[in-house]
């Protein structure tokens, strides 16, 4: 390896001014030659001294002039644990930044006449979903989150994000994992805090022994965990129930669902309510014959509130979730179908007849389904987004198809991360013409 000259070494240390935050929450410094350097844990307006690390990335070694928005991180694991990237930023400023991200995504999609956004932020210690990594290290077991940009695991001993009910169970869970014969080296634990209690899905790299199942049953009974399911790494089948002490249930807008293990729910109870209300507020005026088509319905987070307002046709691609939704739909104005919308989208002709289409697509966006959407041009559409980049892509297609933006609600339900949730209402321009007596082209 060629030795560094003094000039080369000096070029690896420099003082820069951070001008903005990038999409992942890292500070960005734009140099005189146009080059952009991304520096974790810095904020706009700060002057920082940075140094190139052995991996070739840049890290701040000293904050020369701090931002007034800089604050003391509430977690002692911040900077090591990869779960949070923005605890050094004031929460009010963080909400403004996330709101600006959503509005910038919509502007990039082509919308210039933007409504005033509503913005909300959840409280600390409220996240009810956890996806944790497990690794055996000699006689010990690490249970926590990966460090940023690596496969190393930080043992999660404290967390200002997760609900106390999840944190309280980790010591006993860690102790049980330590004794499992089916955990050779690594695995995962996915936890949902439901109305009935903790619902745990354990994934291991080896098969469970009879003794393992007894230990999991003991954990379930002694710590009031209604259900623990298990799956082997790489297995494409459905998880099996390893231990269950009572029914697993969750209430959505008055309807009780028995969800499958690992089912998707919004990150916090508060954000679930905020998203539901934002969707209901964005609904157009519907008559008795109108049908709301809901896409990517999951276990019914939006389905049941919508069914209180109108008849709903809900589509969900994951069979266990669709079954849970269908089983809970009795006595409501809700029809449920299991359908993989990425392979078999709802066609334009059917979408055109809907009083409103509501969709909460996965992180990558609606993809093939969006093509049918812009051909069908339903007069009203409500899009729930967890990814500004996907929102830009899908909203750009809506803009090109003649939609206007009617409402924006931003919910910061992923505290101290760069992730953000948004609920956007759209109406097709033909709906304006129909109200003035012209023909409805949708």
From TrEMBL:
PANTHER family with a match to the protein in the record: RNA M5U METHYLTRANSFERASE, TRNA (URACIL(54)-C(5))-METHYLTRANSFERASE
Record GO terms (molecular function): methyltransferase activity
Signal peptide segment: none
Species of origin: Acetobacter malorum DSM 14337
Protein family (similarity comment): Belongs to the class I-like SAM-binding methyltransferase superfamily. RNA M5U methyltransferase family.
Keyword list, A-Z: Iron, Iron-sulfur, Metal-binding, Methyltransferase, S-adenosyl-L-methionine, Transferase
InterPro entries hit by this protein: NA-bd_OB-fold, SAM-dependent_MTases_sf, U5_MeTrfase_fam
Catalytic-site annotation from UniProt: 386
NCBIfam families reported in the protein's UniProt record: rumA
PROSITE patterns (UniProt xref): SAM_MT_RNA_M5U
Chain sites annotated for binding S-adenosyl-L-methionine: 266, 296, 316, 360
Lineage: Bacteria, Pseudomonadati, Pseudomonadota, Alphaproteobacteria, Acetobacterales
A Pfam family it matches: tRNA_U5-meth_tr
Protein name from the UniProt record: Ribosomal large subunit 23S rRNA methyltransferase
A GO biological process held by the record: methylation
């Amino acid at each position: 390896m060629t030795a560094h000259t003094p000039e080369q070494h000096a070029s690896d240390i420099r003082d820069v001014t951070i001008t903005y935050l990038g999409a992942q929450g890292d500070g960005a410094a734009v140099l005189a030659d146009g080059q952009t350097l991304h520096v974790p844990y810095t904020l706009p307006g700060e002057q920082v001294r940075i140094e190139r690390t052995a991996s070739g990335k840049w890290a701040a070694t000293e904050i020369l002039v701090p931002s007034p928005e800089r604050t003391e991180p509430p977690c002692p694991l911040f900077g090591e644990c990869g779960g949070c990237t923005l605890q050094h930023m004031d929460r009010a400023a963080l909400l403004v930044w996330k709101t600006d991200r959503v509005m910038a995504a919509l502007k990039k999609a082509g919308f210039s006449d933007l409504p005033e956004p509503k913005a909300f932020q959840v409280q600390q210690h409220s996240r009810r979903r956890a996806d944790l990594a497990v690794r055996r290290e000699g006689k010990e077991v690490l249970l926590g989150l990966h460090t940023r940009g690596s496969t190393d695991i930080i043992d999660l001993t404290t967390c200002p994000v997760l609900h106390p009910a999840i944190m309280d169970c980790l010591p006993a869970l860690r102790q049980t994992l330590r004794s499992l014969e089916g955990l050779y080296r690594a695995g995962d634990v996915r936890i949902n805090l439901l109305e009935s209690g903790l619902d745990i899905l354990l994934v291991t790299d080896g098969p469970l022994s009879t003794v393992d199942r007894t230990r999991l049953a003991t954990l379930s009974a002694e710590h009031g965990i209604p259900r623990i399911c298990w799956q082997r790494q790489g297995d494409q089948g459905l998880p099996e129930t390893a231990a269950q002490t009572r029914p697993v249930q969750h209430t959505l807008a008055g309807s009780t669902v028995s969800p499958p293990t690992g089912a998707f729910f919004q990150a916090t109870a508060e954000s679930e309510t905020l998203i539901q209300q934002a969707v209901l507020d964005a609904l157009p005026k519907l008559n008795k014959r109108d049908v709301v088509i809901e896409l990517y319905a999951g276990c019914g987070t939006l389905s049941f509130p919508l069914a209180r307002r109108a008849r709903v046709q809900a589509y969900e691609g994951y069979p266990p979730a669709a079954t849970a939704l269908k089983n809970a739909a009795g006595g409501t104005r809700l029809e449920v179908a299991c359908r993989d919308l990425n392979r078999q989208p709802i066609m334009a002709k059917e979408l055109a007849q809907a009083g409103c289409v509501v969709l909460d697509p996965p992180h990558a966006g609606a993809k093939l389904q969006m093509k049918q959407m812009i051909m069908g041009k339903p007069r009203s559409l409500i899009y729930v987004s967890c990814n500004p980049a996907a929102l830009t892509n899908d909203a750009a297609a809506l803009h090109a198809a003649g939609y206007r933006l009617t409402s924006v609600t931003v919910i910061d339900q992923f505290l101290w991360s760069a992730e953000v949730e948004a609920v956007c209402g759209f109406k097709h321009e033909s709906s304006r013409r129909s109200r003035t007596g012209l023909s409805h082209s949708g």
